[in-house]
Design goal:
Helices cover 41% and strands 17% of the residues. It is α/β, with parallel strands linked by helices and 255 residues long. Strands 3-4-2-5-1-6-7-8 form an eight-stranded mixed beta sheet, with helices on both faces. Helix 1 packs across helix 11 (241-254) and helix 4 (63-70) packs across helix 6.
Length: 255
């Protein structure tokens, strides 16, 4: 199963991605997690110690790897380089392993944005496509706000696109934009997860703002997530029974 998680910045994508990845690993699944958001927070949400987080080198920063696989120099333009670099070994070689989850952090391309036609971006796109289409792990991908890393070819292998929303007009509008883009490239199974719900009014706003058939769960606002983040613990440490059951249900519906 290949699950991509997206939504407006700050809605809790990384928390939900990490929680589901860790739960899947605890159930004996072979799990690969990819942090495809330039504002990378997935390592923290997985509970990886801060010292180890700082030692993780993003794929976009592996200059030697990029140049070796694409045949072009990093941050030099007007070059001819390989558009289909070999990437099938990268996850096995460069992933950081934590509590049964293999984590790859893609990182940000230094110039030109994620859409630039540069060796770094070509390698990252090839890596995402290989993870989605060429590998057999359960994949959880923490996307940037949108679906920039998913092309039409890659979309064929994504089993579920989970859009996280919170009670707010900007989040709902972001959901509508992302759902439209996802439909345009052929993503079929689009689900919605409501997060940070504090009141019946919050719940109603989400229910009324998204496709009702797509909504697979609502996560209440909890100080536990903030405490875990503060203390460097994983997203699912010390959750109460109700929250644990909610995440278990979400995982079951996505798998």
């Amino acid at each position: 199963m290949k699950i991509a998680v997206t939504g407006k910045g700050g809605v809790g994508k990384s928390t939900i991605t990490a929680a589901c990845a860790l739960l899947a690993a605890r159930r004996g699944k072979k799990v690969l997690a990819i942090d495809a958001d330039p504002d990378a927070n997935l390592a923290s949400a997985l509970g990886i110690p801060l010292k180890a987080q700082k030692a993780i080198v993003t794929i976009a920063a592996h200059k030697r790897l990029i140049e070796e696989r694409t045949g072009a120099k990093v941050q030099q333009y007007g070059q001819i380089f390989k558009l289909n670099p070999e990437v099938s070994d990268i996850a096995d070689t460069y992933a950081y392993h934590h509590q049964g989850v293999a984590l790859l952090v893609l990182g940000a391309v230094a110039a030109g944005g994620t859409g630039c036609a540069c060796p770094e971006n070509v390698l990252l796109r090839a890596l995402v496509q290989d993870a989605v289409l060429g590998r057999d792990e359960v994949l959880f991908m923490d996307m940037e706000p949108g679906i920039e890393h998913l092309g039409r070819a890659t979309a064929r292998g994504v089993s579920t696109l989970a859009i996280v929303v919170e009670p707010g007009q900007r989040s709902i509008e972001s959901y509508k934009r992302i759902a439209g883009m996802a439909s345009d490239i052929g993503l079929k199974n689009i689900v919605v997860i409501g997060n940070k719900v504090k009141s019946p009014e919050d719940e109603q706003m989400i229910i009324c703002g998204v496709e009702k058939e797509a909504l697979i769960g609502l996560i209440p606002y909890s100080e536990r997530f903030l405490a875990n983040d503060r203390d460097g613990r994983s997203a699912i440490d010390d959750l109460d029974e109700d929250l644990s059951n909610i995440f278990s249900s979400l995982l079951q519906k996505m798998l």
